Amino acid sequence: MNLEIVNCTPYTDQKPGTSGLRKSVKQFQRPDYLQTYIQAIFNTLEDREGSTLILGGDGRYFNREAIQIILRMASANGIGHVFVGKAGILSTPAASHLIRKKQALGGIILSASHNPGGPDGDFGVKFNVSNGGPASETFTDTVYQNACVVEQYRIRPIKPIPLDKEGVYDLFGMKIEVIDSVQDYMELMESIFDFDKIGQLLQSDSFKMRFDAMHAVTGPYAKRIFEQRLGAPEGTVFHAQPLANFGGGHPDPNQAHAKELMNQLYTNQGIAFGAASDGDGDRNMILGNHFFVTPSDSLAVLAANATLVPGYKQGIAGIARSMPTSQAPDLVAQKLGVPYFETPTGWKFFGNLLDAGQITLCGEESFGTSSNHIREKDGVWAVLFWLNLLAEKQDSVENIVRQHWAEYGRNYYSRHDYEAISSASGNIIMEHLRQQLATLAGTMIRGKMIRAADDFSYTDPVDGSVSEHQGIRILFEDGSRLIFRLSGTGTQGATLRVYLEQYEADVANHDQDTQEVLSDLIEIAEALGKVKELSGREAPDVIT
Ligand code: G1P
Ligand code: ZN
């Protein structure tokens, strides 16, 4: 009844990258482009009949239209029940939590994360499976294969569902519940952190915090949790209104894009703690007064102090970090005597380790941190974790990090991004590096001895699956590392990422400028990768 079967021509470019299918809005607006991809997802879900689905997005341009289309297609494909975030809003971590809580078959999250939005920006579709985490490569490969051959999609007639108020609706036999986007997530946070202590800190006159929601999805979450629930003064959260184009900004919480927050923390306004999150709420940046915490250090500090937080007071089972992330968390794991893992870039590789109980905390250098409470990275969770530590230790962010370095040594770390170079240049640079791999080990360059060089390959310790070509690693005798990889989330040409890390044990040398400390490695990267020559770029576009 009311079922429409529409003939369509498949697209051959619907191959998901690091986090789902990400394309420009213009590409998504091609005839039936969204529909063919969604149908390919449903075709991959053989057990979808009568199942429950979570649906929401980061509020970017095309979010609402996409939700109405997906609801009509879900009904036509036999889904029984869909939970939708109010106004179509669900942060990625909140969606991950709801999938688990509602025992859903999975969730469709509409987001291009930190990529700019608006009619000329990007859009994206991610599918998360029943454990709440991103679908595995096997799953996304099948979706891609299905997308390449899909010739029909199933949809129901137009019946717009009011998204702006909570309620229960019927769409030709499928139940739709429009729910409060924040409540379930906030309850989960209350079960992990000491809200009383954090509340006291946020309400005290001597502590000022700023949270930059970057006009993206965490606005409603941060307002509700930090201001309304924990009592931080109004204005603590700024850029709080989610906008379809993120106010024209680039919703990526780093030193380059969260400029206003940086200004507030780096001038004398007496702000003790600054934080920001990205388009879909899974990333975080942590700042102290005049002080930036690298995401790698942040993970290490959280791990070292986890037992101060009620949710982790029993200790942690282990830590995982993505390969390009600095080795600072490994040092903590060694000291705690717990296992640690090095996975390829992308959150999907943490899922098996979390499900198997082998790790409790995990993170990436790209401003992503989380734990076993969900199966995604979680921006607001990381901020609450830091607040809980600050409330317990009654010390500044800078002191906490400096004491950490004094105990473990400092991993100087930086990432240099060459954005939107041509795909051809990106491939030539990587190929040029690959050709040198066999002969690099044992060579001395700029006074540094290369211990090993390879193209990173990962064997999942839980299911044995192998992921190859995950980035070129050049490892030095002194523990320094140089890593090159191409981004899997960009939508224009190629983005080359160069990751640099150098370890310094001596506390007397912990106060140096990061780029200066890394200057030898930067020269070595250029000598080996010929990035400037082969890309035609004079300097990186973004340094984090
Ligand atoms: C980037 C980050 C990666 C992260 C992903 C999704 O991917 O580098 O760590 O998991 O975004 O947020 P990339 O563009 O490097 O493939
Ligand atoms: Zn994101």
Counting structural domains, the number is: 3
Total number of strands: 27
CATH classification, class level of the largest domain = Alpha Beta
Overall mean pLDDT stands at 96
Commentary on this structure:
This protein folds into 3 domains: 4-181, Alpha-D-Glucose-1,6-Bisphosphate, subunit A, domain 3 (Alpha-D-Glucose-1,6-Bisphosphate, Chain A, domain 3), CATH 3.40.120; 185-408, Alpha-D-Glucose-1,6-Bisphosphate, Chain A, domain 3 (3-Layer(aba) Sandwich); 410-543, 2-Layer Sandwich (TATA-Binding Protein). It contains 18 helices and 27 strands. The radius of gyration is 23 Å and the shape is globular. The protein is of the alpha/beta class and 544 residues long. Strand 13 (285-288) and strand 14 (291-293) form a beta hairpin. The longest helix is centred in the C-terminal third of the chain and has 18 residues, at 423-440. The strands form 6 sheets. Strands 2-6-5-3-4-9-8 form a 7-stranded mixed β-sheet, sandwiched between helices. Strands 20-21-24-25-26-19-27 form a 7-stranded antiparallel β-sheet.
